[in-house]
Specification:
By secondary structure, this protein is α/β, with parallel strands linked by helices. 45% of the residues lie in helices and 15% in strands. Bound molecules: 3-phosphoglyceric acid (3PG).
Length: 209
């Protein structure tokens, strides 16, 4: 599926979406992810400490680190400079995708309509984030979109939890599922690395059923 990093994400089947308020929690976050069996992180650029957290996680070398909520070309540059290996956006921007390709990182743009999937294809992308998944038709919508777009992989994210992750992963066109339920914001805020490890391990077990 295009960039090797996307194949890696597909291999892990899960993309934890992270909102980190205090970048000094990045180490226990990384330990919880690796310890739970999911060495993957999508750190959203929604908090001032996000880029520092990306830098800390990327420097470990044992995690696949991406930036999420990337809306501008400038944010692509800052995330890649910090060490992000893939760039996730809520929607599809040709400019953002072009910069990702210039910088040699994978782009994972959001698309939930046929027009948006076509725009992503035109921009050179064959894996899209189906976001927000639960309010955009869920599994039925992905199956319907996959019919005309053979060769496109979907990463549904948004409103997905432990109870419905398997339902999405059962769709052949779904390469991985994303979501924030795997790394509870409260656990991160409390510095509860053990709780993060537990939730991550539970998600991995739900995804491999
Ligand atoms: C995202 O940016 O991908 C979403 O905020 C994640 O959605 P969720 O919190 O519903 O899992």
């Amino acid at each position: 599926a295009g960039h090797p990093v996307l194949a890696e994400l597909a291999r892990h089947r899960l993309v934890p979406v992270i909102v980190i308020e205090d970048p000094s929690a990045a180490t226990l976050l990384g330990d919880g992810l690796v310890g739970g069996g999911l060495p993957v992180a999508e750190v959203t650029l929604r908090t001032p400490g996000a880029l520092d957290a990306i830098a800390t996680l990327a420097a470990r070398g044992d995690l696949l680190v991406g930036a999420g909520t990337v809306l501008t070309v400038d944010q692509v540059d800052r995330a890649v400079d910090a060490g992000a290996q893939y760039i996730v956006s809520p929607g599809t921007s040709a400019e953002v995708i072009a910069r990702c390709h210039e910088r040699g990182v994978a782009a994972l743009p959001g698309a939930v309509t046929a027009t948006e999937v076509q725009a992503a294809l035109t921009a050179g992308v064959t894996t899209v984030k189906f976001f927000p998944a639960s309010t955009s038709g869920g599994p039925a919508a992905i199956r319907a979109l996959a019919a005309p777009f053979a060769g496109v992989s979907f990463v549904p994210t948004g409103g997905i939890g432990a109870d419905d992750v398997a339902q999405y992963l059962a769709i052949p066109a779904v390469s991985a599922v994303g979501g924030s339920w795997m790394v509870p914001r409260e656990a991160l805020r409390n510095g509860d690395g053990e709780e993060i490890r537990r939730q991550v391990a539970a998600a991995v077990s739900a995804a491999t059923k």
